[in-house]
TrEMBL record, chain A:
Subcellular location: Endoplasmic reticulum membrane; Golgi apparatus membrane
Membrane topology: Multi-pass membrane protein
Organism: Oncorhynchus kisutch
Domain notes: The DHHC domain is required for palmitoyltransferase activity.
Protein name (record): Palmitoyltransferase
Biased composition (Low complexity): 366-375
Domain Palmitoyltransferase DHHC: 136-260
Lineage top rank: taxon: Eukaryota
Taxonomy of the source species: Eukaryota, Metazoa, Chordata, Craniata, Vertebrata
Gene: ZDHHC9
EC number(s) per entry: 2.3.1.225
Main localization, broad class: endoplasmic reticulum
From TrEMBL, chain B:
Membrane as UniProt keyword: yes
A GO CC term assigned to this protein in UniProt: palmitoyltransferase complex
Region ranges (Disordered): 139-158
Keyword Membrane appears in the UniProt entry: yes
Identification of the protein by name: Golgin A7 family member B
Record domain Golgin subfamily A member 7/ERF4: where: 21-133
Keywords: Membrane
Family stated for the protein in its record: Belongs to the ERF4 family.
Places the protein is found: Golgi apparatus membrane
GO biological process, one term: protein targeting to membrane
Membrane topology note: Lipid-anchor
Biased composition annotated in UniProt, kind: Low complexity: 142-158
Length: 399, 158
């Protein structure tokens, strides 16, 4: 059987596992389902447009021109925060490469020792002491790492996220370490904007009704009714959410920890990350350093793909593209045990030959053999080489 | 001890990788980026303990500087917030500046200390800040036996 070996340069985001979508050549990173995000955009832009169209002209003349100016500034701030939250990397932890995964497996086996046949091996947990408190680090079967403290695996995006707060469909992204402050500022500024528009709607209606009457006012500015409706319902939810997150920030907790009751105080468990001081907690979360992304999306890498020249022949595992192989780890049933096997290299090759589509993960394919402990000769990753043209190397492959 | 002089270029171009050792994170002080200073046994014969520990301690100092919540980070945060974070498109954050320094430091350490001993440090930022990966290359000066942590060589010896 013969196959043609092609080497080309791709951006790393094209090969990233997980269920994210990328835009602008890897600069923008979002979840797959974006419908609710578009709704958020529509509501904010729509309501503000109505405000600028109907209320602002009247209020600028009869009250103060500062009103629409401030509204515009607030609107731009809200949009900037929303787009920052939605488009940025929330703090995704890259999956372990095969050598690291093997190293961790060996450590686990050494810790657990010999498990008698028929017995379930103990769960993969590592205990660490943080500020005097024992914290359990769980092993992620998908990412093949022990999750750092406060990290959690988002099943919607299929990534481990550092300081995972929650997955927010309204912003179409996870909220984690890197974008939590933008999310908080978004909810805060949106609350202010909603209150602002709501207040000035009422002021406008009252002022106009004094002159023209209530019914005529509504007829002159029909947008007002719509705005008041949207603002009224938004107010309860967004202001409530802002209040909730303010509470979480003051305690230096995440939504995830709050829901799970990790630091609820029973069994004398206390939050080891809190500074026990509201000001310090707020400063750390909101004014802490801006963490850079550790997910290299726009770096270049080689993509060696084998395009079979004869029909329907699966290529053997020869390309050094780092895909985590499924190990024969004991399948302790938990939500993160991967039920679907990773696609074979042939599928990935064919998908890329047809110009970049996400590798299908729902197919049931034969599992790849466990990578042996002998280290493979993998050239160091993440070293952008000088631009080279794609080279075609004809190769004969034996099955 | 490595008897043959390796240079960094040679290691990068023709890797005869024996094994990789991973230095894990130290979470005893919370989620700040810190690596364990424990000296791994696999490196025992290749490098002096003090040299290695110094490297890790220096890296820890750099990361602590990057993540320090203090006057400078407040200024940066407030200024960025006032500009709706558009300023991040123009300027580098303090963390990114420190990461560049770290990258330079690791490169220098590799050239001066690790490559001559047949080792190679990988910048933790390329591994998600989870581990410091130390690649151990075959010691060509010796009779071809690779470091003992290689399981398959252990099996083949039986």
């Amino acid at each position: 059987m013969s196959a043609v070996m092609m080497t080309r340069k791709v951006r790393k985001w094209e090969k990233l596992p997980g269920k994210n979508t990328f835009c602008c050549d890897g600069r923008v990173m979002m979840a797959r389902q974006k419908g609710v995000f578009y709704l958020t955009l529509f509501l904010i832009v729509g309501t503000c447009s109505l405000f600028f169209a109907f209320e602002c002209p009247y209020l600028a003349i009869h009250l103060s021109p500062a009103i629409p100016v401030f509204a515009i500034l607030l609107f731009f701030f809200v949009m900037a925060m929303l787009l920052r939250t939605s488009f940025s990397d929330p703090g995704v932890l890259p999956r372990a490469l095969p050598e690291e995964a093997t190293f961790i497996e060996m450590e686990i086996e050494a810790t657990n020792g010999n498990v008698p046949a028929g017995q379930r091996p103990p769960p993969r947990i590592r205990n660490v002491q943080i500020n005097g408190q024992i914290v359990k680090l769980k092993y992620c079967y998908t990412c093949k790492i022990f999750r750092p403290p406060r990290a959690s695996h988002c099943s919607i995006c299929d990534n481990c996220v550092d300081r995972f707060d929650h997955h927010c469909p309204w912003v179409g992204n996870c909220v984690g370490k890197r974008n939590y402050r933008y999310f908080y500022l978004f909810t805060l500024s949106l609350s202010l904007l909603t209150i602002y528009i709501f207040t000035f709607n009422i002021v406008h209606v009252v002022m106009r009704s004094v002159n023209s009457g209530f019914v005529k006012t509504l007829q002159d500015t029909p947008g007002t009714v719509l705005e008041v409706l949207v603002c009224f319902f938004t107010l309860w939810s967004v202001v409530g959410l802002t209040g909730f997150h303010t509470y979480l920030i003051s305690l230096n907790q995440t939504t995830n920890e709050d829901i799970k009751g990790s630091w609820s105080g029973k069994n004398r468990v206390q939050n080891p990350y809190s500074h026990k001081n509201i000001i310090n907690n707020c400063c750390e979360v909101l004014c802490g350093p801006a963490y850079p992304s550790v997910l290299d999306r726009r770096g270049l890498m080689r993509d060696d793909l084998s395009v079979p020249t004869s029909a329907a022949e699966p290529a053997t595992n020869s390309n050094p593209v780092p895909q985590t192989t499924k190990t024969t780890a004991p399948l302790i049933p938990n939500e993160h045990t991967p039920d679907d096997a990773k696609p074979s290299m042939a599928d990935a090759a064919i998908a890329h030959a047809e110009k970049r589509s996400p590798s299908p993960r729902e197919d049931k394919l034969p599992t790849l053999p466990k990578s042996s402990p002998t280290p493979t000769k993998v050239p160091p990753l993440a070293s952008p080489e000088t631009d080279a043209e794609a080279s075609i190397i004809a190769k004969d492959k034996a099955l | 001890m490595a008897t043959e002089f390796h240079n960094l270029q040679e290691l990068r171009q023709s890797p005869s990788l024996a094994t990789k050792v991973f230095i894990q994170r130290d979470y005893s002080e919370g989620t700040v980026c810190r690596f364990q200073i424990k000296f791994p046994s696999e490196l025992g014969s290749r490098i002096e303990r003090t040299l290695f520990e110094d490297t890790v301690k220096t890296l820890n100092t750099y990361y602590a500087e990057a993540e320090k919540v203090g006057g400078q980070s407040y200024m940066e945060g407030c200024l960025a917030c006032a500009t709706a974070y558009f300023i991040f498109f123009c300027m580098e954050t303090r963390y990114e500046k420190v990461l560049k320094k770290i990258s330079g430091y690791i490169q220098e350490q590799n050239e001066k200390i690790y490559a001559p001993r047949g080792l190679l440090l990988t910048d933790p930022v390329e591994r998600g800040m989870r581990v410091i990966e130390v690649s151990v290359f075959e010691d060509r000066g010796s009779s071809g036996s690779s470091p003992s942590s290689n399981v398959s060589s252990g099996i083949s010896q039986r």
